[in-house]
Amino acid sequence: MMRRRTHSGHCSLPRGAARAAAPVACPPRRGAPALAATLPATLLATLLAGTPLPALAAAPPPDRPATTVQPPPGEATPAPPRPSPATPVPAAQKPTAPDAALRATLENGLRVVIIPDRLAPVVTTEINYLAGSNDAPPGFPGTAHALEHMMFRGSAGLDRDQLSELGARLGGGYNADTTETVTQYYYTAPAEDLAVALKVEALRMNGLSLRAEDWDKERGAIEQEVSRDLSSPVYSYLSQLQAAMFAGTPYEHDALGTRPSFDKTDVKLLRGFYERWYAPNNAILVIAGDVDPPRALQQVKDAFGAIPRRTLPARKPFTLTPVQARTIHLPTDYPIGIATLAWRMPGLKAKDFAAADILGDVLGSQRAALYGLVPAGRALATQFSFQPKPDVGFAIAVGGFPKGSDPAPLLASMRGVIADTVAHGVDPALVQAAKTHELAQLGYRADSISGLANSWSQALAFQNLDSPDAIAAAYEAVTPDDVNRVARQFLQPAGMITAILTPQESPKPIAGKGFGGAESFASAPEKPVALPDWAANALRELRLPTPAPAPVVSTLPNGLRLIVQPEHVTSTVSVYGQIRQDTDLQEPPGKEGVSSVLDRMFDYGTERLDRLAFQKALDDIAAEENAGSTFSLKVPSRHFEDGLSLLAENELHPALPAAAFPVVQRQVAGQLAGLLASPDYLFERASVQAVVPPHDPALREATPHSVMALSLADVRGFVTAAYRPDLATIVVIGDVTPERARAAVEKSFGNWQASGPKPAVDLPPIPPNKSGHAYVPDRTSLQASAALLETLGARVDDPAHFTLTLGNEILGGGFSSRLYRDLRVKTGYVYSVSSALRWSRERSSYAVQFGADPGNVSKARDLVVRDLRDMAEHPVPAPELDRAKASLLRQIPLGRASFDAIGYEYLHLADLGLPLDQPDIAARHYLDTTPAQLQDAFRRWVRPDDLATVVKGPPGGG
Predict the structure, then answer these.
(1) Beta strands 844-852 and 784-792: pairing type?
(2) Whole-prediction pTM value?
(3) Which CATH superfamily is domain 326-446+469-503 in?
(4) Where does the record place the Peptidase M16 N-terminal domain (predicted)?
(5) So what's the architecture of 552-749 in CATH?
């Protein structure tokens, strides 16, 4: 499998209803902790996730947050992941080929691209201003980022409160990110609200308020963001790496900015930046989704046509100087060590970009020598990542080593792999596989509406291309000689920067008596916000969303449940599967960790095909595959049967080779040794201990000792006992008919049989928890992370599920939510805050999480408690309730705006034992809920005085 395209960051898709009823996947999107987002995210997931901590209530499948997360308005990030052009598919099968897009340039210079995608009644607008941190005045590296934040503080015709109100009622996701050369603002909303989203962006382009009192408040929030990122060792590493790679150029500074620069920044400086760069002739607007392109273009003209163009400043050229080799040493709170080698590389606009990208794919392939260090037992994990920016780029080879071990042998092995590649060249077969994979990605673009908008934005704004497809010819032309030439030119020791991120011991958690009594806060009622007529008229009506098309559901004779959703927006098929499991209940006593060992053993191929042969078979059909208790496949539709056969072979007949078992066993044990002492793990474990009874199954944990006591027979026994078709669900979505999908699944999975009675896979109910406090010291963190948690007595099939979800939307569902308003806007205590309801079949819980300076944790907690009490003591005002209803009702269609969203929603509903039309059922409940019912639900189920508090942060900050 080639290097995955990964996108870290905030998910600002549907919150509340669709997510509590059935959490949905985030589409590829940006906005993670600034520069740290560029570190290979799949490696971080592999290295840092460790053995999953048993959840109080079942978590959704990967990449599907069950929380109602409130992202802050704006994130400074590096250049977002570039588009993933891709597969040699006949042109007629490309539904989003260049000629399917409507292009126009308004008289004022605004470039517009509109790409139809009928996957769901949803639209994403993404406006790209061609200015970023590289254009900041000297000494003010965060100017573009600061202005991005202020774009959410109101404009002429739409003040800050109206913008928040409108965003909440739209129900979609709106956010932004800042990079070195581009600042992006994006809305994902119901397609019927396109004109509203466009009007918002037009008002912000032409008349931003930029009031001094607003900047004084926003400065505190943005400095909280700086503290958060400076708490990340990865951010520290990448900041130093970028400074060394691009010294003397605008790229040496991250887009985030610094506290000193923000302290010096005033609205005059921000206004000057805004007036220089925020002009229609310096912007590209991308619209993707269920729209009529000519009508959408007219709406764009109506909104933006009168905005005058401006004369743009000239940009100064810069010259790169040679990189000086050096070694960076950094302490971390990670469970394992990370060793990296980095080199400067071409940028997105360079003629050698395609060859450099293919080189990155080749070196990152699981068939290549770098990954081979893992099965050889010389690394816990490895990855190679090419990270291009518009004018420059860098590549990072990363390897993981056990905490306490010497990284020198791993670094020597990594250097040897790269040196051998430079000296002897790459494998031509891997070059061809990489090209096939890159080209195949074109077929996957339209399976996410926001992802489609993002890929076009990357092509136009970052690469200066005509469309994402324009890079295809460059990929097709790449030869092994081109790849070898780029390797010889750039992967040289003289310009290599080495880094070692070493885990440090962290103090043990400290139990405490908790915080003192709540402070007294003035809590004058909030006045209803009157929207402008153009917004009020569009959003006034509360109505049920159109029900989604029903999938075709069947059950195979062996008990496997099959859900098929034909979607012909792209010539690909995605498969999502899960086997209901709870390792806390199913791992035999003394065999803790057997499931973690098994998870890694799936990487070693099948009984028929060894690791390399299996990977080649996937590469040959441009498939992406994962096996395990949660499994998946993405494949061009013409290769659907072949891909599904390989997935089934890996899932049902894994090789589990005897020679690999001791290697994997040592790797898992080595990772656990660091994980069990890491602050993040201790924080999560303290959170579970705070709310479950002593000796609860959720408190079981694997240890190095339990893993090293396992045998290969234990692993094989766990497969037999826990991997059963009568606990499995498979979802097939894409360019396939129900009949074809059923036939393929029966052929590949029909002979799978269960033995013995079904195991227990649901944790039993638990009593209400009591208030408590725990503090986890973290020496590497500048900011404290806090979680306030409690169990709920409500069941997932209780109608209170919907009522509590509606209340949670009021508390934590958006920029206008009570928690965001009180903890961020009014007081500046936190940078971000989220609240979440989590459900399993027998357990439920509620949690509020936030990050804050240590001195503000107690103050923020008191405000949370006050807001929760208010929900039970006073009816929610009708305007506030209507806003939450409007938000949740409009969010429901957004839960179908990508294949991932649809697939994981169905899996989650199946896991909870809920009907597949649960979002439609939820919508009716939301519409009918009264203030009295909402107040009664919070009075009955939520106990503010019993919230357990867990804090992780700087020593002495608890």
Answers:
(1) antiparallel
(2) 0.89
(3) Metalloenzyme, LuxS/M16 peptidase-like (3.30.830.10)
(4) 112-258
(5) 2-Layer Sandwich (3.30)
